[in-house]
Amino acid sequence: MMVNRRGLTLATAAVMVLSSVLFAQKKDDKKQTDQQKKDTLDIVKLADAAATGQMPNDLGLAWAHEDYLKATGNKEYVPFTLTYDPSKISTPNIALYWRVVAKDAATPAATLTIAPKKDDKEKDRKPAPKFAYEDINFVNAGMGRISRAFTVTAGTYDVYVILREGSSTQKNAPAPKVSVIKQTLTVPDFWTPDLTTSSVIVAQRIEPLNAPLSPNEQLERPYALGQMEIVPALDNKFSTKQELSIFMLIYNPKTDPMNKPDVTVEYNFYAKPAGAPEKFFNKTSPQDLNAKTLPAAFDMSLGHQLQTGQAVPLASFPAGDYRLEVKVTDKLATKTITRDVNFTVTAG
Predict the structure, then answer these.
(1) pLDDT number for residue 127
(2) Under 8 Å CB-to-CB from 175, ≥6 apart: which residues?
């Protein structure tokens, strides 16, 4: 059975995106108010305490999802999404801080630090601790979910995230509510000669952008990739009235003399009945990514990204659990890899 699907024009290899644009993450620091500077010092202390296990969660903060993509300079790009309960927040603005700590001492640490200096005398300053990554934002409360990102080399990390209400200047005001969570991640290595892929990003929706974002905008919208923006799905549960939309990047395919690959991507769906072995359900037409289908200017030696994606209507899927198998075949290298996505369809 062949299922009909809507082609994701934005999520095909026909879109050329340079790594330098995809992963421009650092931003010019915005000037903080005196109160925000004080809040920053308090938040850094909270992060230090979190390493010892002191982790309150007044705001219902939870780690929802992360993805892995290739960045530049032998690093990987890790966008992630958090959820929290906006009804528990009593201030218009909140502070979001994230610190990435390598579990392997051999993993290089970044020089970035926002830890405070003791005073203005150089001789009295103590070296601030170095982490693989850290940053802080002051953002509007009320959305209930927020996405940010970091770049690190491959390895295993503990990610500490702090969400904190803004401080009040009123006398005898209650202490700001705060949430602290820790998430351990193992970041894959995409800087090898082997055929591999990014995460298979399951999208709630994919929207076009008129132009790539600025570095400042990219920080706040880490799932904006070139001229499209992905809103990731958080639970992989969809009704029959929705589509399953996915996107991923294919890394390290062998190329021909014109620096073009010859890759075929197949999408096979398997039903997973309760208490029974899974069985083949349907598939979409294979995608051929080669010199005949890619733009004439596509050149992997220039950093162009090989992309693939599908948007499959779920109206023909009976309610139940499914596995999508994405099979990537590099014809020039005679290599094949597969990626799996588990999802649930509900009657709708």
Answers:
(1) 53
(2) none
pLDDT of residue 15: 40
For CA atoms 117, 122, 126, 127, the dihedral sign is positive
The CATH architecture annotation of domain 9-17+192-346 reads: Sandwich (2.60)
Q: Which residue has the tokens 């909140």?
A: 94
d(CA 332, CA 261): 7
Structure tokens of 110? 């970044």
Topology, domain 25-187? Immunoglobulin-like (2.60.40)
d(CA 151, CA 190): 13
Same fold, 9-17+192-346 and 25-187: yes
- The conformation of residue 225, written as its DSSP 8-state character, comes to E
Q: How far is CA 107 from the centre of its chain?
A: 21
**Global confidence as pTM:** 0.84
The two tokens of residue 189 are: 């290595």
Sequence-distant (6+) residues with CB within 8 A of 188 are 68, 76, 154, 196
As to burial, measured by CB atoms within 10 angstroms (0-12 exposed, 13-18 middle, 19+ buried), residue 14 is: middle
Tokens (6 digits) for 180: 């602290």
Which residue shows structure tokens 């082997």?
A: 194
Mean pLDDT, consecutive 10-residue stretches, the chain (348 aa), reads: 45 39 46 72 76 82 96 95 94 91 59 43 54 90 91 95 82 84 96 96 92 85 90 94 96 96 98 94 96 95 92 96 98 98 94
Can you give the pLDDT at residue 182? Answer: 94
The DSSP code for 129 is: P
Residue 90 carries which DSSP code?
-
CB contact at 8 A, 321 and 342: yes
Contacts of residue 54, Cβ cutoff 8 Å, sequence gap at least 6: 180
Q: Return the domain boundaries, the chain.
A: 9-17+192-346, 25-187
Contacts of 258 (CB under 8 A, 6+ apart): 291, 299
- Give the largest Cα separation in the chain, rounded: 73
Question: Cβ(248)–Cβ(337) under 8 Å?
Answer: no
Residue 148 has which token pair?
């940010």
Other CB atoms within 10 A of residue 3 CB: 18
